[in-house]
Amino acid sequence: MKYDYDLIILGSGPAGFSAAMQSTKFGKKVLLVEADAKHLGGAWINAGTVPSKALREAAASIFKYNQLFGADGASRNYQRYKMADLLRFKDQVVKYENSEVKRNLIKNEVHTARGMGHLLDPHTVEVSDHLGTRKKYRAEFILLATGSSGSKPKNFEVDHRLVVDNRSLVNMSHVPKRLVIIGGGVNAIEYATIFSALGTKVNLLSSRETYLPFLDSEIKKEFDLALSQQRMVIHTQVYVEGVSENPLRNCTEVKYRSLKDNELRVLETEQVLHFGIRQPNTRGIGLEEVGIEMNEEGYISVNGHYQTSVPSVYAAGDIVGFPGLASASFTQGRIASCHMANIDNVKLSGAHPFGIYTIPEISSIGLTEDEAISQGLDFAVGRAFYKELTKSSVSNTTLGLLKLIIDRKTLNLLGVHVIGENACDIIHIGQAVMKNKIDVRYFVDNILNYPTFSEAYRVAAFNGLNRINKSGVKYRSLISSEKDS
Asked: What gap in Å lies between CA 17 and CA 347, rounded to an integer?
């Protein structure tokens, strides 16, 4: 059967992009279909990961400067720094990343088509461009990587003036003095700390019982302490009933009801930033016609190779659900393309890290302490608070914690949890040790650069070994190269 391409990809986000790059290395002919008429990279580059992290970097730099030298007392951050300057920096980053995606696609001879892709059968995609022109393409394999979108609010509208979302955030003319953020997910928490670091008084409204429930409880306690030191309040278990403008008080009012006592409350703010619940972009792409199975939440069901119920069609990225991270999507796209090339032994193995780019950062891999307890494991905890590190002193950073979950018998790491500066970077040291099943003595037997935040591993390892020693295991056997039999 004749095909136009070896692989057609719907969506140029991290999953689609990485699959295209890997497939060209196998000598495959690839067509990448992107719905956005102007930009490649999807939400990854244009509305999600990249722009939010660029704004976060700008805000963190300002926050860090004030940590080191203190505010001059003349004005608040939201008065001293212009939103236009922050957005200009963000735009520079986005423009560069867009050019890099385009350069790599051209370099690797990936064909692109602009328009909405729709499955006609297991090997055929129809692309409708922005002028209404339709064209059909056939391929041996198809990868669905159309990502996800935030749901719309029920009781008010995102007018992109009083109420903005992560896309229309660029229309904000200044750093607001007061801001209400509606949403309880990772993105909402990240943006809350970004604006809080700029001096904005932030109120976050979440319908959930708690925020970031998957965090290790001790890490979350440290994060709560960080939030208490900033101008930020989190309201959980609330239902937003409406958003309206109050011209008499020259403010925007957010009405919400507590689910605990059913009491109606009102917050006065300048603007509202709304984050809807993430939903997979599966509508209108022909899944039902082709017979591709989805789970109860509407995400596409896949196997370990990211192959759908239709063998020639694969899916990766946000469209398959958890974990919904750009970092995971890159690997998922690569695994799918390898399986298409009859390479079956490339799979995700074991735990993977996640990073939350709040201020301060949070990152984790493996079991939390609560999970280790619930599983009845015999473990010890090693802790290193940032305030114990010389790097913390020279950085004037007091908040932070690195926590190790250690198997008492093997001394292997079961989990690593970090909150503090550079958390999303130093987590990879713990990841490498866990993946290679090296025990915790690696950190005490090897030299770590001083002063660094990574040195927290050495401190935490000694702390954990001391706890095991106090429980009856001889310290001499703990530090020797041979474990007790």
From this structure: 18
Cis link prior to 311 (omega < 30° from 0)?
A: no
d(CA 329, CA 322): 10
Burial class (CB in 10 A: 0-12, 13-18, 19+), 255: middle
Q: What is the dihedral of CA 95, 97, 99, 104, to 10 degrees?
A: -170
Look up the CATH architecture of domain 360-479: 2-Layer Sandwich (3.30)
Does 5-57+72-149+279-340 match 360-479 in CATH topology?
no
Beta bridge partners of 403: 383, 417
pLDDT for 352-401, tens place per residue?
899 999 999 999 999 999 999 999 999 999 999 999 999 999 988 889 99
**Which residue from 332, 311, 312, 309 is spatially nearest to 321, judged by alpha carbons?**
332
Rounded-to-integer distance, Cα 103 and Cα 221, Å = 44
| CATH architecture label of 5-57+72-149+279-340 | 3-Layer(bba) Sandwich (3.50)
Q: CA gyration radius for the chain? A: 25
What's the pLDDT band for 414 if we cut at 50, 70, 90? very high
- Is residue 375 within 8 A of residue 240, CB to CB? The reply is no
Domain ranges of the chain: 5-57+72-149+279-340, 152-276, 360-479
CB 461 within 8 A of CB 438: no
Are residues 73 and 17 in contact, defined by beta-carbon separation less than 8 angstroms? Answer: no
CATH of domain 152-276: 3.50.50.60
In the block, tokens 């950085």 appear at 395
Each residue of 179-188: b (16+ CB within 10 Å) or e? bbbbbbbbbb
Q: Identify the helix (H) or strand (E) that includes residue 34.
A: strand 30-34
d(CA 203, CA 183): 11
